[in-house]
Design brief:
With 174 residues, the protein is of the alpha+beta class. Helix content is 26%, strand content 30%. Strands 1, 2, 3, 4, 5 and 6 form a six-stranded antiparallel β-sheet that branches.
């Protein structure tokens, strides 16, 4: 397992948004529940796809393309409490012709710790056919620029199990 990066390292990715954790995320244990972590990660991912990749409503209307989630894996590292200030950051890990592999990082600004990470794979889709298609050139260019920047970072995050942009060959395949 990789050691978690410092907040200064994560800040180099840029901040998708910051928020004060609302009361609705408190669970019976007195900390932020799984839904709260997940909601914050998903808000960050939506910001990333809209602001960094340009996949927003105007793009959808113009191209008929969007993305569908294929896999998500959340890892919890440190607690968050209601009232803490948090930020969400995106790191692109890889991409295939039709898929994106990335991770959002939920940072607890109040405690200075990485609270959780959400590693995910998204498929780029044509909404007419509801099938994966090649990522549009304009999105691929933005993705590739981010991927190049993120590959140069001197730190990593603990990987999830077997998420990635393609399936490993089955034992029956040569």
């Amino acid at each position: 397992m990789s050691a978690l990066p410092a907040l200064d390292d994560v800040d180099a990715l840029g901040t998708l948004f910051t928020s004060t954790v609302p009361e609705r995320y408190r669970d019976l244990n007195g900390h932020v529940n799984v839904r709260g972590h997940y909601d914050l990660h998903m808000d960050g991912a939506e910001h990333a796809f809209e602001k960094l990749l340009g996949i927003d409503q105007a793009f959808l209307d113009r191209t008929g393309h969007s993305s569908f989630s294929v896999a998500h894996h959340v890892q919890f590292h440190h607690e968050i409490m209601v009232g803490h200030e948090v930020s969400v950051h995106l790191r692109v890990l890889g991409r295939g012709p039709k898929t994106v592999h990335a991770v959002t990082v939920l940072a607890n600004r109040t405690t200075g710790e990485i609270a959780s990470t959400l590693e995910f794979v998204e498929a780029y889709v044509d909404l007419t056919t509801r099938r994966a298609v090649a990522i549009a050139d304009e999105v691929a260019e933005r993705l590739d620029a981010l991927l190049e920047q993120h590959r140069e970072l001197p730190w990593s995050l603990p990987p999830s199990h077997q998420l990635g942009t393609s399936r490993p060959p089955s034992p029956e395949q040569p």
